[in-house]
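Annotated sample (chain length 200).
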Amino acid sequence: MAHARAGMGRGMGRGGMGRRAAGPPVESERISVDDVAAWLAGRLPDDWFEAPPAVTVDRDEILVLGRLRPPDLPKDADEPTHAAAEIGRISRFREDTRDQRIAVAQEAEHRFGRTISWGAESGSTSAVFTNLSVPVMTRLRQPERRVLDTLVDSGVARSRSDALAWCVKLVSANTDEWLENLRSAMSAVESVRGQGPTVG
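Output written by the structure step:
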């Protein structure tokens, strides 16, 4: 999975809108995170987020996670008050921008061939509004199936599917730095490959 931050307020000559606005949708296997981020930089309203949103892309989905301006609270407000205000700020953004987000998502899905999901952050609170759940088929031998069944039998997971998702989350949590290095290396390879000659 690759990710980047979409720059806000840049000139259209450098953004995705200036290069491909009238062109055909980008082929799904060649989608660049930079292209998505640049297009969003020109397309999203400038007053939505206080900083460029984080853009995460995989083979099925584009997640746009933006940071909202923090609520105005008294300096002596305690942690539960901050948490409640942040939840309220995120909820307001979700409701107020619903129609616009749907319109942006439809354009982006046509352009990039992926489902668009949204989320927002305020203070220490983060929420994803819509997130794609994709079935992944795999074949497992008995030792691997026994791992899943142990998680199910112990009550850690409700099913083999949940157990497999739990295992993936565990690996991600414990190998985050290694996975990020791997993604960076893959991104560098993609960049170099894109600079090569066009055949045909």
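Annotation: Helices lie at 16-20, 33-43, 79-96, 98-112, 142-153, 160-174, 176-194.
Annotation: Residues 176-194 form the longest helix (19 residues).
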